[in-house]
């Protein structure tokens, strides 16, 4: 039966109208949606129901939604998309650093939400498979990364990257589809905490990388930059 193949999505949202709207949207798109209106309820459902994806509002009545991220990340890699009305970048960064895969700021369009859901489920399937990149290669659109040779190809032609640029590309590709915060990238590439100097260094490297990839502002780019937050290599 088809219904058994449906992805299960846990929606954690205390506002009834948004909960209803998003549930209907997910069900219409062919997912199975289960809702929780508090963090405590979400924890119980998460543990028993084992969803394939969590959509999580950070502002919950009983606890901060961050608590659910920490709870879920204790032993599960289930993708989590944070839904937030908060304007503060610090909250988004904290959620991403705690293990959320992506975030959407309210108000959002239904098309945007469904696109993020598709990406999160697809990326998780990649990473859940053994031998994520057969032959030690990563590819998306016209970009190919050969991890063994440390080479990057665009439209079949090798593009020269500095060792640091290559390391950043390898890191982003291993986390393809996930928004990586400045702090997470700086720590992985140079070690240590992100300071003004290291973030500047990252931005300079990213500008060079994006130029080499042919990314243009507003285009269908390989790398997405969320100002003040981080970077994502789009799948
Ligand atoms: Ca709320």
How many domain units? 2
Please give the CATH architecture of the largest domain: 3-Layer(aba) Sandwich
- In percent terms, what proportion of residues is strand? 15-25%
N-to-C terminal Cα separation, in Å? 30 Å
Major beta sheet summary:
5 strands, parallel
DSSP summary, beta strand count:
12
CATH homologous superfamily classification of the largest domain: Response regulator
The best one-word shape is: globular
Q: What is the H-and-E element order?
A: EHEHEHEHEHEEEEHEHHEE
Strand order of the largest sheet: 2-1-3-4-5
CATH topology of the largest domain: Rossmann fold
Number of helices: 8
Q: Which value, in Å, is the CA radius of gyration? A: 19 Å
How would you classify the helix and strand content by structural class?
alpha/beta
Listed once per kind, the bound small molecules are: calcium ion
CATH class of the largest domain: Alpha Beta
Query: Mean of residue pLDDT?
Result: 86
